Amino acid sequence: MDGGAGGNLGASWSSSEGRGSPHYLITRRYPTGFAAPHTFFRNGEGVVAVFCSEGATRRYLGSLAPEDGWHVRAFSPGELVSLLFALHERVAWVLPDPLHNPSSGRLPCKNRRSCPVARDNFVVSLLGR
User: Fold this and answer.
1) Most buried in the list 15, 45, 87, 123, measured by CB within 10 Å?
2) Residue 67 carries which DSSP code?
3) Domain residue spans in the chain?
4) Is domain 4-12+20-100+109-127 classified as CATH 3.40.1350.90?
5) How many other CB atoms are there within 10 angstroms of residue 9's CB atom?
6) CA distance 83 to 80
7) pLDDT, tens digit, for every residue of 83-103?
8) What is the pTM of this model?
9) What percent of the chain is helix, strand and coil (3-state, nearest 5)?
């Protein structure tokens, strides 16, 4: 599947590995009950990091040192699709399993999986089309 400007999605994002496999995000729950994901910006467009493992998400969260209230939350593929649609005006890109070096301030693209993928292409991969 073509990931658009961000390249191809890696094999771990294939729907053939099980539609029920959770994905992990760094989120903050607001008084409204909405679990908003941690986002950052790439060329003025919102990016959300999505992980395949809880441990990697926790390590990434630890490297960010955000203010209190941020935590790791598992999302089913369906929940993640819904969240990405709800955030369509805020999030244009998904960064699958980032390899972030917080001291550099840059997003590495050492391999195609660590590059941002267009949100809509990521959603299509979750839906298994």
Assistant:
1) 123
2) P
3) 4-12+20-100+109-127
4) yes
5) 21
6) 5
7) 999 988 889 999 998 855 444
8) 0.71
9) 35, 25, 40
